[in-house]
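Q: Structure for this?
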Amino acid sequence: MALEASLPKTYDPQAVEKKWYDFWEENGFFSQTVDLGKKPFSIVMPPPNVTGVLHLGHAMDNAQQDVLARFKRMQGYNTLWLPGTDHAGIATEAKVTEQLAREGTSREEIGREGFMERAWAWKREYGGNITGQLRRLGASCDWSRERFTMDEGCSAAVRRVFASLYERGLIYRGNYIINWCSKCLTTISDIEVEHVEKPGHLWHIRYPAADQDVGEGLAGAARGFAGVVVATTRPETMLGDVAVAVHPDDERYQHLIGKHVILPLMNRKIPVIADAYVDSSFGTGAVKITPAHDPNDYDMGLRHGLEQISILDDAGCINESGGPYGGLSGQEARRRVVADLEALGLLEGVEDHDHAVGQCYRCGTVVEPRVSRQWFVRMAPLAEPAMEAVKQGRIEFVPDRFARIYLGWLENIRDWCISRQLWWGHRIPVWYCQECGAEICGVEDPSSCPQCRGARLEQDKDVLDTWFSSALWPFSTMGWPLETEELQQFYPTSVLVTGRDIIFFWVARMIFMGLEFMGDAPFDKVMIHGLILDREGQKMSKTLGNGIDPLEVIDRYGADTLRFMLLTGNTPGNDLRFYAEKLDATRNFLNKIWNASRFGLMHLEDFEPAGGERLSSDCLSLADRWILSRYEGIAEEVTRRLEDFDLGEAGRLLYEFVWNELCDWYIEMAKPRLYGRGVRSGESVAAETTETTGMSESQETGEAAETSESPEAAMGTARTVLYTVLEGSLRLLHPFLPFLTEEIWQHLPHEGETVMLRPWPQPAGFRDEKLEKDMEALIEVIRAIRNIRSDYGVAPSRKIKAALFCADAGVRDLMRGASADIELMAGCDDMTVLDDLANKPEQAAGAALDGIQVFVPLRGLLDLDKERLKIEKELAAAGEEEKRLAGKLKNPGFVNKAPAEVVAGEREKLAAVQKRLELLRQRLLTIDKADILQPVDQG
RNA sequence: GGGCAAUUAGCUCAGUUGGUUAGAGCGCAUGCCUCACAUGCAUGAGGUCGAGGGUUCGAAUCCCCCAUUGCCCACCA
């Protein structure tokens, strides 16, 4: 009593979450030492940005990882979940830069060294935020192994990998066309460019033939000029044009190939070249070629040996190569160029044209393709094995459709631009000798030039793409390049859990780096989840302002509610909508568990958990055996689902089991015994009662036969079963609801320090599918009776008596004590009683179930109109059913080809329906004839 | 231009290899403050499973086509 009284009626997460998290962490329950004798399970956490804040995406991602980690830990695996954070080059640099601006200073002013100091200070100040937030979520990761992508070890791994790839020619430096963000002031890789379809224009511009005088007198006389009309979406880039291209077979332009035209505004003579890349059917069939600012033109420029004229500066403005337009912004230059062309009469037309504009994925600024000298990773040799690993099943995507996305990307992969014009990051480990020009790359900082012995060395100014260090995460965090025992036990990791948005950024790159440097894939499985959407199905984003802060949710509902909500209600890989009603429903579920446990505690205060061996089946009631069977069935199914990474289904199964089966049925059925009222179903009788004739001939005389065991013994058994199922369910729920389950479990009698280290439930042989089917039938019967009660408005306080006729004695036995509001009539299995009731439909309401008939004497409760309506309804339904069945049985296809037992079954059903129709018609008649009804007996 | 997902009750979603009567939560209706829980209990109403073909004795489920929505990829200027 004291225990249950100490628990409030509703679960209060705020009161317990911190307590248990600290308890777990301080006792080292999350930490794992290497033990090569145990089977390993390992996950590396996708490192969140060190300066970031937890959003719902993180919450879901980490909740999923936590479920797996806790599940595997309970299963006895040596489980490592390794956390850490990412230095997030551009994002962090932008934040620090902003901070400097607020202080009235700047990057340039404080210099590289000063900036790095500020960035590290920023990291020290805010880096703990997100890890603290992960703790609030309940993440059971091993914080003693927390890593940071720029810590010493990870940096050493970066150096080693870079040097190795460099030595083998897999990293090279060169002038290529790259993507430039003029706001972030750095290059970005191809996948960091987002293509957004936008309405734009296609301008048709005439480039006059070069043999005509295009001097100063161009204006006003343009109409007379021949030449060629090109179509472009970016007219300002013409300032950097070096050619016009047409398809070699295009008849319209044969006469121009090899000739020259004049580039208007710049008055440059440029050739007309033939290249099969050009699509004759698009635009005018003639393309202006700007090798310095368009990837296709760049390639074509290489093919034809064309000059690259760069016309943009770092800020995206026209540079001195743009002649009179120098200094203008891109936008402004476009306006002026178009206006000037129009004035010259060279603008032949403008049409609307949607086209994809590349934007920086971080800041949304339009990305300009530029030719620039950068560092690249040669992808072809690395991509090949990475594709093989997935094709051969070495790495498995869950759901597997994501494997195709991965493979598709790698098939068409281009070299990876890894240099960034930033300061915050891993500086490229290459030095240039200022004396002889040698390029030096090494794991150690060089002190002098190995070629000329000169000491004037200057390190490359750029840093590496953040994803370069992320790509090494699965092994750099475990100590590579040292041969650590962590690597030995935990690499390859078991599964990577992440969102589909970073398959390219991260997953693919980890795979090829792992294969290259560890000789094995970094993980066996990749579990991909979707995004969190708002209630309308919109992506949550900062710009839309529809984001929800997971910490506010935790404050209000608790971490477990948030977790469970994020983990259930959808299928793997699909997006998940997030809205308040779902949270409420989940909170109610937690409260249900809470109260079921309070009920349990009332009855288990001085209970000794001696173990399951006390549960031998001969002292169990049918209800006991049923719930134990269901519990084991659920445990098995949940285990299977978790092993298949179907967390949503596992959670749903637990929800339904706990609420519907444990709470709504078992606890209700066990109450009489738990309260010492001693009603106990007669399983001993059931064991003897055969299923021979369908109607038991034994003389069951009500409750006398039921109490073959003392109320005390019955209570003891019920308590043991209740404990077994409740405690076991808490263990099954623990991966989903760590805080709630720990809090309850600690109140229950228990062995061990914490539920999180208890063994995962194992089957103990209570599964009995026949019994489960019987119980299902019983539930149907009880529903039918309650339905009758509801239809006739029987007061809830009044017990309802029912007669139950069924072929199966087991079901009838289950019925005893199954429901507090229903009891079986004495002698109700007597055939004569059945006939009697069936023949007096005005005195009894009935329901026919599969092989079972139920009657409830009405005892004067009959409401004639209601009954009549109901029968009419039933008649209509039965009529329909008869039509359907009769039609089916007339179908020769069905009769001849379906299995004989199916056909026979249908025939039986038809017969039953016809019989029922007849019965209903008679009852209707009787009712119509009845004047006043006499109660059957006095209840 | 390709590819992927989704389309099932008023809303949000399940539905395992084709097989009795298609499920849940929320919402709704009716009745209940029954000694674990009103964040609850009981009962009920509500579905031509996006449209159209096909395979099959039998299709929400397999095949084809179409439509709508969302997402990803793509160097048609």
